[in-house]
Amino acid sequence: MEQIIGYIQAGTLQPGDHLPAERKLADFYQVNRSTVVHALDELVSLGWVIRMQGSGTLINEGNWGRSTMPRVDWRSFFTQDSSRKDPYAEKLQQLLPDPTAVDFYSGELPLSLIPDFRFPSYTWEELLLEERKQGALGYQPLQQVICERIKREQKIEVSSEQVLITSGAQQAMFLLLQVMLQSGDSVAIEDPSFLYSLPIFASAGIKLYGVELDNQGMRIDKLEQLILTKKIKLIIINPTFQNPTGTTMSEKRRLELIALSQKYQIPIVEDEVFSELNFQIVPASLKELAPHQVIHLGSLSKIFGSSIKIGWIIADQDLIQRLSEAKQMMDFSISVFPQVIAYTALKDPQFEAHQKKLVQTLRERATDFEEQAKCIAADWEISTICGGMYVYLKWKHQKLTRKDWDVFIKQKVLIAPSFLFSSDTMAMRINYTRMDQQNQQLFFERLQKISTELRRK
Ligand SMILES: Cc1ncc(COP(=O)(O)O)c(C=O)c1O
């Protein structure tokens, strides 16, 4: 199909030209005749060729009805429901509105902690004027403010031409897959990782391989083994307060990772959506350590909630240019509205104070959790919380199966079991930021009951 489209585009095949008979094509490509029929059917449905009774297959006369390749409908992959296909995740989803359930599963801050801003009212005309500041890479004032923040928070010096605004970090990742990889390519991620069950990889035909983590982050020796056995084209990593384990990669590991990626010439995508929710100083970002080797992703979802859907990619200018072209081709354009809202919130004089207060509250919630969690320490190994949103609890006793986790559903304690992130069935992710005085007590009471039941199994 690609070759025929290529010949038409290059003019080698002209409108009205006949394609060879199916049998001849099958001989030529050394494929089964039914494969040829299938490819021609696709070309007909895409409008490149037409079938005429009695005169075979001809090149279509014009552009009407033509499209290039059958593309997946990406929008369906970002809808709330389609990204939660696992039956357990579906059950969780159904329980979310239940007021008697306690939700430590959702991946965002509770509403009470999301900074509240008053937005200035815009007239229609003023908004249209703002629209003029929208370039191919996004709303320019927002790009600018992201550059300033990145420089201040992460010591990364970038210009606006290196920042592409996207509709969230997930869309950023999808764009990168489309531009940098081909169907059948392999990508290394952490094991466990929230990327494990995202449909964007499967839909693009990308194979995911997991690399074991320890308390310093991804094991570089294991990564090298993987690179040597599978043809890894890209490494995607969430180095700071990793989702789901909360682990932060040490500086030593970061340097080793960069050295490895340079040795094998494999680019790294650094997903840094949690780095601002830090109670302690975090190691330098990978982008700071190796500006040209690393593509940096950020998002506002973890501060403002996922409905804002604003994210960004920071990379070298030529890659940003390609990504921007792909974005336009796929009609990924983002309206100026959420961008103006994001800009206003980030520029609000109260923003820094809100942010400080938020981090302080998270620190208190983390300390409180760790203190209360002593009552379950005989059954669960608990990760240390240094920032971010998640704490990871590992069951200390017998092997658990997927089915054992139904007891959480029965008790209406909503958590994310590790099988949503890996093939492992022994641990769970808890969003501790959602724990206030009220639901914390409920959580530990119910968890103690659950643990007793699990021990009996
Ligand atoms: C580590 C990580 N990266 C990216 C995303 C997606 O972010 P966005 O909502 O901006 O698409 C999430 C959301 O859960 C996440 O946990």
UniProtKB/TrEMBL annotation:
Q: Which family does the entry's similarity section mention?
A: In the C-terminal section; belongs to the class-I pyridoxal-phosphate-dependent aminotransferase family.
Source organism of the structure: Enterococcus hermanniensis
Q: Which SUPFAM superfamilies match?
A: PLP-dependent transferases (SSF53383), Winged helix' DNA-binding domain (SSF46785)
Protein name per its UniProtKB record: HTH gntR-type domain-containing protein
Task: Kindly give the Pfam families that the UniProt entry links to this protein.
Answer: Aminotran_1_2, GntR
Domain HTH gntR-type: from-to ranges: 1-62
User: Which UniProt keywords are given for this protein, alphabetically ordered?
Assistant: Aminotransferase, DNA-binding, Pyridoxal phosphate, Transcription, Transcription regulation, Transferase
Q: Name one GO molecular function term.
A: transaminase activity
Q: Which domain of life is it from?
A: Bacteria
Do the record's keywords include Nucleotidyltransferase? Answer: no
PANTHER family recorded: HTH-TYPE TRANSCRIPTIONAL REGULATORY PROTEIN GABR, TRANSCRIPTIONAL REGULATORY PROTEIN
